[in-house]
Design a protein that fits this description.
This protein is about 35% helix and about 30% strand. The strands form two sheets. The chain has a six-stranded mixed sheet, with helices on one face. It has a four-stranded antiparallel sheet with strand order 7-8-9-10, with no helix packed on it. A hairpin with a 2-residue loop joins strand 9 and strand 10. Helix 2 runs parallel beside helix 3.
Length: about 180
């Protein structure tokens, strides 16, 4: 009679652990996750929900930039749904090419796309100023006075990204100012 308690306890502990693990795994994917990636001389932001990721910005122009972005996307185990950046300039060209070749996002939102990138895009390019929706993730991208912003909204996250570090918060429309 006394030997059955350890077995029963082990079975109950195993059951509780399994239920918690499965519950955590299921609920974890439904939450919106935001990661800011340090890129040495720039930053990038990854927002993920339901196994899909959207990349905002492409960081700087050194090896650390490309490595950290690619590593962060790889580690998420998610599909790169879109890349959103106001422009791809000479500084971020190499990172953009690496990201596009490695992950082939379904969409890219950008105002200025260099000719070197056009063959990679396969006509998946859109202008930066757009209203975008991905699986309960709503994104409004807009430019004011040559400064670019992205408002990200879901049921559990509300964030305003300012792509230029010297952006004037006073330019932001009131409906986005409470992010």
């Amino acid at each position: 009679y006394g030997k059955s308690y350890p077995k029963l306890t082990a079975v109950l502990c195993g059951f509780v652990f399994t239920v918690l693990l499965v519950t955590f795994s299921l609920t974890d994917k439904s939450l919106t996750e935001m990661r800011v990636v340090d890129c040495g001389n720039g930053t990038a932001v990854l927002v993920s929900k339901n196994n899909e990721t959207v990349l905002f910005g492409t960081g700087g122009n050194d090896f650390l930039s490309s490595y950290n972005i690619l590593h962060s996307i790889d580690n998420s185990g998610n599909v790169l749904q879109a890349m959103i950046t106001p422009e791809i300039d000479k500084k971020s060209l190499d990172n953009s090419v690496n990201i596009l070749k490695t992950f082939s996002p379904d969409e890219i939102y950008c105002n200025n796309i260099p000719p070197e990138i056009n063959p990679i895009l396969n006509n998946h390019s859109n202008k930066f100023n757009a209203e975008i929706s991905f699986d309960n993730l709503d994104i409004s991208c807009f430019s004011l006075n040559e400064k670019s912003f992205a408002f990200i909204n879901s049921e559990d996250l509300s964030v305003l990204l300012m792509f230029d570090p010297i952006s004037d918060f006073g330019l932001v429309p009131e409906k986005y100012a409470d992010a």
